[in-house]
Amino acid sequence: METIVKLIGGLIPDDLLSFLPKEVHPATVYLLRVALNHQNSGYVDAVLDFTWEQLNTGHWFNVPVWLRQVYTVAALIKVKLSLSEMQDEPSEETIMHQNVMEILDMGLLLGAPLAAPAPDLSDLARILSENISKDVDMKPLAVSEIKRQRLLASDISGVHGTPVPTVECPSLESFYAMYFKPLVPVKITGCMSHWPAMERWTDFTYLQAKAGARTVPVELGPHYLHPDWSQKLMTVGTFIKDYVRNPESGKDVGYLAQHPLFDQIPELKDDIRIPDYCCLSSEDKNEEQSEDPDINAWFGPQGTVTPLHYDPKHNLLAQVIGEKRVLLYSPTDSDALYPPKSGLVTNTAQVDPEAPDYESFPLYKEISAMETVLLPGEMLYIPPGWWHHVRALSTSFSVSFWWM
Ligand SMILES: O=C(O)CCC(=O)C(=O)O
């Protein structure tokens, strides 16, 4: 216990207020100063709560970075105070470790990095996680388990499509000329065998050790358009135990969907490889201008569904564990998919290809889909603007790479 307090405490300097951005409100500085001087968590909780409210009002896109930095500083102060409480109450060790882990993860999810030499929350989280995840019983996911519970694409109701073309690990030049430039979807095989994740992630003991104690947002319910859909924060360990391992236990379908897990837990990034194709660009960019792709994790049991939608970026959806059925529609068919004209989800079709309502959406009868089943080790190139509908046929872990 003392080691954790020393290891983490030693990385958090005393002058945390000096990392606050200049835009911070003086009342916030006052509350944080009182919290530090009087070792009083109540004051920092107040700052975390009202900053949380501000961060969750309006579009995330419009939230200023400085406000997120205020959240990070408050999270660090909360961690510092919790560590000194831990010293006074050694009997509560395990609960306190988990509490500190949660504060760090909330800081990583909502906050923003501070200028050096401020401590990096992901370093603190890694050190703590290495010390608290080991004692949970988590068996490997046997390949036979995946096979047993697998659904066949032909069993899915609704429409089916013509096969998406498949190529084996094309050269950059041929991928560019045949698919990237003309914006043609393609399934790419044989390009992921060198990813350590292909082996490591089939072992849930491994995922538990690396990520079990980490808090992540999980989507609950049939899919994000459904009225019963919600989101809940939980640890990866709880998610695996209650939603991935035992999905039949009567709870909602749980999906760790579109989550930047590899930014939150950089150790897991060592298990994947950014595909070379992500260096291609449709715009004239030199090497310095090209950015790393946005990398997201999609992890869940059989039956997760991502409704028919499109994204504005190039996408490689890489399948690590299990199988997914993907339906694709061309951007030229957009009208026949009836996306709402206004609101938050104008990139999502009203048509459900698994239960099409031809009366309400008659133009949908006129168009046809492309279809593929992604197997472990396969990647699907989805060009910008192409509509896609995704259903997991088994327990599944995919990684998407979005880039411009
Ligand atoms: O795998 C999924 O469920 C959806 C993936 C997706 O929509 C994407 O990568 O853009």
Provide a descriptive summary of the structure in words.
The chain has 404 residues and is an alpha+beta fold. The protein folds into 2 domains: 2-132, no CATH class; 144-403, Sandwich (Jelly Rolls), CATH 2.60.120.650. It contains 13 helices and 14 strands. The chain has helices at 2-9, 26-37, 41-55, 65-88, 93-110, 121-132, 143-148, 172-180, 197-200, 204-211, 236-245, 261-264, 266-269; strands at residues 162-163, 166-168, 186-189, 215-220, 230-235, 254-259, 294-300, 305-309, 314-321, 324-329, 370-374, 379-382, 387-392, 396-403. A 9-stranded mixed sheet has the order 2-3-12-9-14-7-6-4-5. A 5-stranded mixed sheet has the order 1-11-10-13-8, with no helix packed on it. α8 links the parallel β2 and β3 (186-189). α2 packs antiparallel against α3 (41-55) and α4 packs antiparallel against α5 (93-110). The longest helix is centred in the N-terminal third of the chain and has 24 residues, at 65-88. It is globular and about 70 Å long. Bound molecules: 2-oxoglutaric acid (AKG). 2-oxoglutaric acid binds next to β9, β13 and β14. 2-oxoglutaric acid is lined by residues 298, 304, 306, 311, 315, 317, 324, 388, 390, 398, 400.
